[in-house]
Write a structure and sequence with these properties.
The chain is an alpha+beta fold. The protein has three domains: 1-67 and 264-318, no CATH class; 70-178, no CATH class; 181-260, Thrombin, subunit H (Beta Barrel). It is built from four helices and 16 strands. It has helices at 16-20, 41-63, 263-279, 299-311, and strands at 28-29, 70-78, 83-85, 92-95, 101-111, 122-123, 129-131, 153-156, 170-178, 182-184, 195-198, 215-219, 226-233, 240-244, 257-259, 283-284. The strands form four sheets. The protein has a six-stranded antiparallel β-sheet, with no helix packed on it. The longest helix has 23 residues, at 41-63.
Length: 318
């Protein structure tokens, strides 16, 4: 089954091969998109790809952030409600926009008053900052939790953020990774392969020497699902090659998803995709509704309601 190229925004959280191959128990016939006679396979693939992209966008919007791993650069001003200083210790606390924070690349501070070309950033030395609530296991050797673990705040050593300039006297620039590594194969992979080509290497490889890489599931509806533990990555972000700790047990086609994202997020996205497909004219099969609900005129709203309830533990708090 041929999967059309994904958009520059990255691999969606549900893919063509999964929907057309019946990977998720959704009771929606995605092969009936788009409606009409004499519809070509290319048109069907394009219509389902549009549903995947739309469902992913809706999930990002509901959560107020994209859960896939991304390298971010964020500037905040404080001390204020998102940049605070603990009176007892002098430790700075910065609440970032995205979570879970998995790795801090750099932290810089500068006086707010000296803007433009006169602004000079002071780099906070490595080791003087850390995530407030690190993600347990950094995705390796354990399955990502469905409880929304982790945090979006970081702690900065005393002295770098203070009240010397008054309220909002400092700007803080943080470069960090958040979220779960998520991508798809950009080329076919054969059984026994110890490396794979992917569309996005972000956060798959070890952040530092001696650390483990990420562990993900290859979610292949036809070739056989299996886990993949990454030991090295040829690129920090973008397309590249991931080296695996063990050979693949199965062959996989290009476009197959590999993800460390919690299954609950992927399942919720698939439900949103089913509701979107019904809205676009796809035919429902028996019980095309959320599990435990009745099929019928409210199937679309029930699917989305169940999806949003599933996603609630992951919503951004700021």
């Amino acid at each position: 089954m041929t999967t059309p190229p994904f958009s520059p925004s990255g691999t969606p959280y549900v893919t063509n091969d999964q929907l057309l191959g019946g990977y998720w128990p959704l009771a929606v016939d995605f092969t009936t998109l788009p409606p009409g006679t004499n519809v070509t396979q290319t048109q069907k693939q394009a219509a389902v790809a549009a549903v995947c992209e739309s469902a992913t966008s809706q999930v990002n919007s509901y959560l107020n952030f994209p859960p896939r791993s991304i390298l971010n650069t964020e500037i905040l001003t404080g001390p204020d409600f998102r940049v605070t200083v603990r009176n007892s210790t002098g430790v700075g606390r910065v609440i970032l926009s995205r979570w879970p924070v998995t790795q801090i690349v750099s932290v810089q501070v500068a006086p707010t008053a000296a803007m433009g070309p006169n602004q000079t950033w002071t780099t906070v030395p490595a080791g003087s900052w850390s995530p407030e609530y690190p993600v347990i296991g950094r995705f390796s050797s354990s399955v990502p939790s469905g409880s929304g673990e982790g945090g979006q705040a970081i702690l900065v050593a005393p002295g770098y953020i203070n009240w010397c300039g008054g309220r909002d006297g400092f700007q803080v620039k943080v470069q960090y990774y958040h979220g779960w590594p998520h991508t798809a194969l950009s080329a076919p992979a054969i059984a026994g392969a110890t490396s794979i080509q992917v569309g996005d290497c972000t956060s798959w490889g070890p952040f530092a020497a001696g650390q483990p890489g990420a562990e993900g599931a290859i979610r292949d509806p036809t070739g056989g699902e299996e886990s993949a533990s990454v030991t090295a990555s040829s690129a920090t972000t973008g397309p590249g090659t991931l080296t695996l700790s063990a050979p693949l047990a199965y062959a996989h086609a290009a476009g197959v998803m590999i993800s460390s994202m919690p299954s609950t997020i992927l399942w919720a996205t698939a439900q949103v995709a089913a509701a979107e497909a019904l809205s676009r004219g796809a035919q429902a099969m028996v019980n095309a509704a959320a599990p435990g609900r009745s099929a019928g005129g409210n199937a679309k709203s029930e699917l989305k309601e169940h999806a949003w309830n599933t996603l609630d533990p992951y919503k951004r708090t700021w």
